[in-house]
Amino acid sequence: MTYLDGPGEDQAKGPGDGPEAVALEIAGAVEKLSDLWSVAAQGAALRLSPHQLRALRALEVTPGLNLTALAERLDIGLPTASRLCDRLEAAGMLERASHPHKRREVQLSLTAPGRHVLSDVTGRRVQALAFALRGMEPAERVALSRGLKALRRAQDSQLSRSEDRDRR
User: Fold this and answer.
1) Which of 48, 62, 72, 140 has a beta carbon 3.0–4.6 Å from 52's, enabling a disulfide?
2) What confidence tens digit (pLDDT) does each residue in 53-84 have?
3) pLDDT tens digit sequence for 140-154
4) Orientation angle between helical segments 67-74 and 78-90, nearest 10 degrees
5) Which pTM was predicted?
Protein backbone atom coordinates (compact mmCIF):
# COMPACT_ATOMS: atom_id res chain seq x y z
CA MET A 1 0.00 0.00 0.00
CA THR A 2 1.15 3.58 -0.66
CA TYR A 3 1.09 5.99 2.26
CA LEU A 4 0.87 9.73 1.84
CA ASP A 5 1.50 10.68 5.47
CA GLY A 6 4.34 13.09 4.88
CA PRO A 7 7.65 13.67 3.12
CA GLY A 8 9.25 10.42 2.12
CA GLU A 9 6.17 8.44 3.18
CA ASP A 10 4.82 8.01 -0.36
CA GLN A 11 6.80 4.84 -1.01
CA ALA A 12 5.35 1.47 -2.04
CA LYS A 13 4.82 -0.66 1.05
CA GLY A 14 3.22 -3.88 -0.19
CA PRO A 15 1.90 -6.11 -2.98
CA GLY A 16 -1.16 -3.91 -3.49
CA ASP A 17 1.14 -1.34 -5.08
CA GLY A 18 1.99 -3.44 -8.14
CA PRO A 19 1.20 -2.06 -11.60
CA GLU A 20 -1.98 -4.15 -11.97
CA ALA A 21 -3.40 -3.15 -8.57
CA VAL A 22 -2.66 0.52 -9.16
CA ALA A 23 -4.06 0.25 -12.70
CA LEU A 24 -7.33 -1.07 -11.25
CA GLU A 25 -7.53 1.89 -8.86
CA ILE A 26 -6.75 4.32 -11.66
CA ALA A 27 -9.40 2.71 -13.88
CA GLY A 28 -12.02 3.38 -11.22
CA ALA A 29 -10.86 6.97 -10.83
CA VAL A 30 -10.87 7.48 -14.61
CA GLU A 31 -14.47 6.27 -14.81
CA LYS A 32 -15.51 8.80 -12.17
CA LEU A 33 -13.49 11.52 -13.89
CA SER A 34 -15.04 10.59 -17.22
CA ASP A 35 -18.51 11.03 -15.71
CA LEU A 36 -17.48 14.39 -14.23
CA TRP A 37 -15.99 15.40 -17.61
CA SER A 38 -19.16 14.45 -19.52
CA VAL A 39 -21.56 16.14 -17.09
CA ALA A 40 -19.50 19.34 -17.12
CA ALA A 41 -19.43 19.36 -20.93
CA GLN A 42 -23.18 18.87 -21.12
CA GLY A 43 -23.69 22.02 -19.06
CA ALA A 44 -22.27 24.12 -21.89
CA ALA A 45 -24.58 26.37 -23.88
CA LEU A 46 -24.29 24.08 -26.89
CA ARG A 47 -24.30 20.37 -26.17
CA LEU A 48 -21.89 18.38 -28.29
CA SER A 49 -21.21 14.66 -28.40
CA PRO A 50 -17.85 13.37 -27.16
CA HIS A 51 -16.84 12.73 -30.80
CA GLN A 52 -17.76 16.29 -31.75
CA LEU A 53 -15.76 17.70 -28.85
CA ARG A 54 -12.77 15.51 -29.74
CA ALA A 55 -12.98 16.70 -33.35
CA LEU A 56 -13.03 20.34 -32.27
CA ARG A 57 -10.09 19.73 -29.91
CA ALA A 58 -8.12 18.07 -32.71
CA LEU A 59 -8.73 21.07 -34.95
CA GLU A 60 -7.78 23.43 -32.15
CA VAL A 61 -4.45 21.63 -31.68
CA THR A 62 -3.80 21.10 -35.40
CA PRO A 63 -5.67 23.64 -37.51
CA GLY A 64 -6.05 22.85 -41.18
CA LEU A 65 -6.35 19.08 -40.90
CA ASN A 66 -8.00 17.41 -43.83
CA LEU A 67 -10.85 14.92 -43.39
CA THR A 68 -8.60 11.86 -43.67
CA ALA A 69 -6.18 13.16 -41.03
CA LEU A 70 -9.07 14.02 -38.70
CA ALA A 71 -10.59 10.56 -39.15
CA GLU A 72 -7.24 8.95 -38.36
CA ARG A 73 -6.71 11.17 -35.31
CA LEU A 74 -10.18 10.28 -33.98
CA ASP A 75 -9.82 6.62 -35.01
CA ILE A 76 -13.08 6.68 -36.96
CA GLY A 77 -13.98 5.90 -40.55
CA LEU A 78 -14.06 8.52 -43.29
CA PRO A 79 -17.87 8.41 -43.72
CA THR A 80 -18.32 8.91 -39.98
CA ALA A 81 -15.82 11.78 -39.96
CA SER A 82 -17.56 13.37 -42.93
CA ARG A 83 -20.98 13.24 -41.24
CA LEU A 84 -19.43 14.57 -38.03
CA CYS A 85 -17.94 17.52 -39.91
CA ASP A 86 -21.23 18.10 -41.74
CA ARG A 87 -23.01 18.49 -38.40
CA LEU A 88 -20.28 20.71 -36.93
CA GLU A 89 -20.26 22.88 -40.04
CA ALA A 90 -24.07 23.17 -39.96
CA ALA A 91 -23.83 24.27 -36.31
CA GLY A 92 -21.24 26.91 -37.28
CA MET A 93 -18.42 25.25 -35.30
CA LEU A 94 -16.05 24.52 -38.18
CA GLU A 95 -15.51 25.56 -41.73
CA ARG A 96 -14.10 23.87 -44.77
CA ALA A 97 -11.80 25.65 -47.17
CA SER A 98 -9.77 24.62 -50.18
CA HIS A 99 -6.13 23.87 -49.45
CA PRO A 100 -4.01 26.72 -50.86
CA HIS A 101 -1.56 24.33 -52.58
CA LYS A 102 -3.56 21.14 -53.17
CA ARG A 103 -6.65 21.74 -55.27
CA ARG A 104 -8.39 18.52 -54.34
CA GLU A 105 -7.81 18.77 -50.59
CA VAL A 106 -10.12 20.50 -48.13
CA GLN A 107 -8.83 21.94 -44.88
CA LEU A 108 -10.91 22.01 -41.73
CA SER A 109 -10.68 24.80 -39.19
CA LEU A 110 -12.52 26.05 -36.15
CA THR A 111 -14.75 29.08 -36.35
CA ALA A 112 -14.96 31.70 -33.61
CA PRO A 113 -18.13 30.02 -32.22
CA GLY A 114 -16.29 26.69 -32.25
CA ARG A 115 -13.45 28.17 -30.23
CA HIS A 116 -15.96 29.75 -27.86
CA VAL A 117 -17.71 26.41 -27.25
CA LEU A 118 -14.37 24.73 -26.54
CA SER A 119 -13.45 27.49 -24.12
CA ASP A 120 -16.82 27.16 -22.38
CA VAL A 121 -16.48 23.38 -22.05
CA THR A 122 -12.90 23.69 -20.80
CA GLY A 123 -13.92 26.26 -18.19
CA ARG A 124 -16.78 24.07 -16.96
CA ARG A 125 -14.55 21.02 -16.77
CA VAL A 126 -11.85 22.89 -14.86
CA GLN A 127 -14.43 24.18 -12.37
CA ALA A 128 -15.91 20.70 -11.85
CA LEU A 129 -12.46 19.19 -11.36
CA ALA A 130 -11.38 22.00 -9.02
CA PHE A 131 -14.50 21.38 -6.92
CA ALA A 132 -13.53 17.71 -6.56
CA LEU A 133 -9.90 18.58 -5.78
CA ARG A 134 -10.97 20.93 -2.98
CA GLY A 135 -12.03 17.80 -1.07
CA MET A 136 -8.40 16.64 -0.96
CA GLU A 137 -5.69 17.71 1.43
CA PRO A 138 -2.99 19.93 -0.14
CA ALA A 139 -0.38 17.17 0.22
CA GLU A 140 -2.70 14.76 -1.59
CA ARG A 141 -3.15 17.22 -4.46
CA VAL A 142 0.62 17.62 -4.73
CA ALA A 143 1.08 13.83 -4.70
CA LEU A 144 -1.63 13.42 -7.35
CA SER A 145 -0.04 16.06 -9.56
CA ARG A 146 3.39 14.47 -9.16
CA GLY A 147 1.96 11.04 -9.94
CA LEU A 148 0.12 12.24 -13.04
CA LYS A 149 3.27 13.90 -14.35
CA ALA A 150 5.20 10.67 -13.79
CA LEU A 151 2.47 8.70 -15.59
CA ARG A 152 2.63 11.03 -18.60
CA ARG A 153 6.44 10.74 -18.70
CA ALA A 154 6.20 6.94 -18.53
CA GLN A 155 3.62 6.87 -21.31
CA ASP A 156 5.73 9.15 -23.48
CA SER A 157 8.78 6.98 -22.83
CA GLN A 158 6.89 3.77 -23.69
CA LEU A 159 5.52 5.39 -26.85
CA SER A 160 9.01 6.50 -27.91
CA ARG A 161 10.41 3.00 -27.39
CA SER A 162 7.51 1.48 -29.30
CA GLU A 163 8.00 3.89 -32.21
CA ASP A 164 11.76 3.13 -32.22
CA ARG A 165 11.02 -0.60 -32.43
CA ASP A 166 8.52 -0.02 -35.27
CA ARG A 167 11.13 1.88 -37.31
CA ARG A 168 13.62 -0.99 -37.10
Assistant:
1) 48
2) 999 999 999 988 999 999 999 999 999 999 99
3) 999 999 999 999 999
4) 110
5) 0.71
Q: From 152, 145, 154, select the one nearest 10 (Cα to Cα).
A: 145
Q: Could you give the domains of the chain?
A: 19-46+112-160 (no CATH), 49-110 (1.10.10.10)
Q: Which long-range contacts (CB under 8 A, 24 or more apart) does 119-123 make?
A: 120/44, 120/45, 120/46, 121/40, 121/41, 121/44, 121/48, 121/53
Q: Give, for 83, the enclosing helix (H) or strand (E).
A: helix 78-90
- CA atoms 70, 74, 77, 83: torsion sign: negative
Neighbours of 111 (CB within 10 A): 17
Report, as ranges of residue numbers, the positions in the chain whose pLDDT lies below 70: 1-15, 45, 163, 166-168
Round to whole Å and give the CA distance between 153 and 147. Answer: 10
**Directed axis angle between helix 50-61 and helix 19-42, to 10°?**
100
DSSP string, 99-146: -SS-TT-EEEEE-HHHHHHHHHHHHHHHHHHHHHHTTS-HHHHHHHHH
